[in-house]
Amino acid sequence: MHEHHDHAHHQAVTPTVENSAAFLLPHLTSSMEILDVGCGAGNITLGLARHIESLGGKANQVQGVDVSEEALNTARSHAADAGLAVNFITGSAESLPMPDNSVDVAYASQSLHHMDDPIAALKELARVVRPGGLIAARELDLGTQTWYPPSPGMSRWRAIFTVIAELDGLHTTSGRQLLSWFHRASLSDANFSSSTWSYASTEDRRGMADVWIDRMSGEEYARKAAEALGDVREDGTPGDMAREAIKQGQDGWNEWASTPGAIFVMPHFEVIARVS
After folding, report:
1. Pair type for strands 87-90 and 62-66
2. What's 86's domain CATH number?
3. pLDDT at 8
4. Is residue 125 domain-resident?
5. Residues 47, 48, 54, CA angle at the centre, nearest 5°?
């Protein structure tokens, strides 16, 4: 399983309870114990803890789990700064370090696309959730992101990045598959919804473009792009075509960001299921 506290790479927005868990909040009550699976640096986890407190519960009813010790240490220091007694534990969604029937809600935001076997991961979430409890998941889908005006550079960016992500073992169409994954994990008592993040203001466009231009500027990205394009030189370095494709992508993002009326829309796909 890949570390996935790199969500900012896909999103110029910091994930929060408001922009990432709105579909879950109406289902929460003050007594629920919640597990945030693949919590990364804990932004959403701490937001869930504040929400439970606002309902009259306690922050320590919420805990986060992630494979990255680095991300968890960041999360722990954020929790300490915020005075929230949230516990962060090391572990993978595919084998949670928790007993059966130990939480009321398991929430996974942008986590399942990192799993080798998302269906097995959902079954593992179902194991730790008490009967009658909830599993909620939210996923992006690279192919459904859209923008205007048309941009050959951005089209090429998405094509190359999609292959890079697939070579890294990520599921790039996780959003559209999400409900199907739930059904295949025997979680058929499920509701599907979607919501979007939109980038249209001058500031939002610039922020989004800068995230990607920066991400594409490293040698590691060049190496992966060359592999994706089959343009690796004999000495292992990226060839000219890969370099030009990256520059075309960066130029495309720049041009898009500076075009009045340009937009970028990123759909998120959401499922809430009741565990029987």
Report:
1. parallel
2. 3.40.50.150
3. 37
4. yes
5. 90
